[in-house]
Amino acid sequence: MAFSFCAKAQAELPRRTFFTEIDSLQLAAPRPMVIFLHTDWCRYCQNMKKTTLRDPDVNVLLNDHFYFLSLNAETEETIIFGNQSFPFQPTGNGTGAHTLATAIGTINDQLQYPTLVIMNENYEIIFQYGAFIPADMFLNILAATLK
What is the model's pTM? Predict the structure, then answer.
């Protein structure tokens, strides 16, 4: 499968939330999901948001072939995903991690930020990477996922 990347004016990723949209979207039009796990305090996460996730070519490919979901791993609201309920899990005074982030983002018994998870339309993890990803590398990962 060949891809041509062209920059669309003001191409931005839609902001989707797990509990309001993704399950019904998957029923209507199945696609792989790209899930970006991050926190507010992680400087690498913030840098990835400002660079990789704003790259026009990345946005075109994500919008055309994937459902992009962004998950703050410290959100305290319960999330329904794949017909399962995932709550926030406190780990101390004012700290904790969301159980969905832990379930899909743990690599080698460790959850780190940022983590990129790609799942197929059956909610199976097909790719995980726990570190900053530059746009060119992200494009290669996405293209390989679609082959």
Answer: 0.85
